[in-house]
Design a protein that fits this description.
Length: about 80
């Protein structure tokens, strides 16, 4: 069962935090890689772990976590896993 964070402070509303990583499902077809965004990850407040939220759960290929790019939501060719 999921827990809801209902703790609020006086007159202070925090905007949702941007994810620390985006989760990508990567499949390989020959020499070509196909990247599809499937979720995101946020670091825990204590810095000792991450929460991974997937919008879909792929059954093949691999999931790669990459830092978000500011200009685009597509990963570059550098640093392919």
């Amino acid at each position: 069962m999921a827990r809801e964070n209902t703790k609020t402070t006086h007159n202070t509303r925090q905007a949702p935090k941007a994810p620390d990583y985006l989760a990508w499902h990567v499949t390989q077809k020959g020499e070509k890689s196909f990247w599809n965004k499937v979720g995101a990850a946020w670091m825990h407040k204590d810095g000792k772990g991450y929460t991974l939220q997937l919008e879909t759960c792929p059954i093949n290929g691999r999931i790669v976590l990459r830092t978000p790019l500011e200009d685009t939501d597509q990963p570059g060719n550098e640093g392919r896993a």
